[in-house]
Amino acid sequence: ERRRIGFVFQDYALFPHLTVRENIAFGLRRMAEPERGRRVREVVSVCELEGMEGRYPHELSGGEQQRTALARAMAPGNEVVLLDEPLASLDPEIRASLRGQIRRTLKRTGKTAILVTHDQEEAFEIADRVGVLNEGRLEQLGTPEEVFYAPATRFVALFVGSANFVPGVVEAEGIRTEVGLLRNEPGLPAGTRVEVMIRPANVRLTPDAGGAGTVAGVIFHGSDRLYTVRLPSGLELRVSAPSTSAIEEAARVALEARPTHVVAFPLNGRPG
């Protein structure tokens, strides 16, 4: 309140006995009436609530309630708006449609917003910068692309998407792994033992009777299939492929790793 910080609660906490207009104006009581009315009209337009000013919270959809709570938080001209999982209570379909609305609304205000969420897709779609927290520690802060393609820690790699970790050793030519020789993009010294992160979508499967891999499981996801492929060492990789490329369980396959970025974590942080 004293630091000009607005807050959007997870359950919105709208006043049920007040209309949309009155909820938005609640924090503007010290303003003169003309200025208060102008400010309410401004945030109503920004939050796309025109025509709903006289409605009560129970007459609004979940998305309309969410936008009303956001308008109330922004109305006093706060420099920062905090949003506590603002879409958590909504159905998945509604959540997906509202992500773009939230980003558009926040962009139009030009204000800083900090949004807390456990949904990585939500974070990536709404935010310009993403911070990943682990037990109170900030593991990484960067653009969505940086966090996904170049995770700073193993925890981040697992948290922001499915990941395989393949053992390898750094050689002069690159990183030698069971799925081939990969570029030594991290620039690690020769002899370093590492785990290379490979996303399931960055492995290509080809049916091959003499291939090194064996399909140990297949899960159909509609637009794609998730394969579990067992290598001679016993290591199992998850591989995502279009559903049109059906490979049966127990089939032998050849694997080719094609990581967009080579991310390698030294084992125990030292060569060996």
Could you outline the blueprint of secondary structure elements for this entry?
Elements (H helix, E strand, L loop, with lengths): L4 E4 L11 H6 L7 H14 L15 H13 L5 E5 L7 H18 L2 E5 L3 H7 L3 E5 L2 E6 L1 H6 L4 H6 L4 E7 L4 E3 L2 E3 L10 E6 L4 E5 L5 E8 L3 E7 L5 E7 L9 E6 L5 E4 L6
Parallel strand pairs: 1-2, 2-3
Antiparallel strand pairs: 4-5, 6-7, 6-9, 7-8, 9-15, 10-14, 11-12, 11-14, 12-13
Helix pairs in contact: 2-3, 3-4
Describe the structure.
The termini are far apart. A 5-stranded antiparallel sheet has the order 8-7-6-9-15, with no helix packed on it. It has a 5-stranded antiparallel sheet with strand order 10-14-11-12-13, with no helix packed on it. It has a 3-stranded parallel sheet with strand order 1-2-3, with helices on one face. A hairpin with a 5-residue loop joins strand 12 and strand 13. The chain is elongated. The chain has helices at 20-25, 33-46, 62-74, 92-109, 120-126, 144-149, 154-159, and strands at 5-8, 80-84, 112-116, 130-134, 137-142, 164-170, 175-177, 180-182, 193-198, 203-207, 213-220, 224-230, 236-242, 252-257, 263-266. The mean pLDDT is 90. It has 272 residues and is α+β, with helices and mostly antiparallel strands.
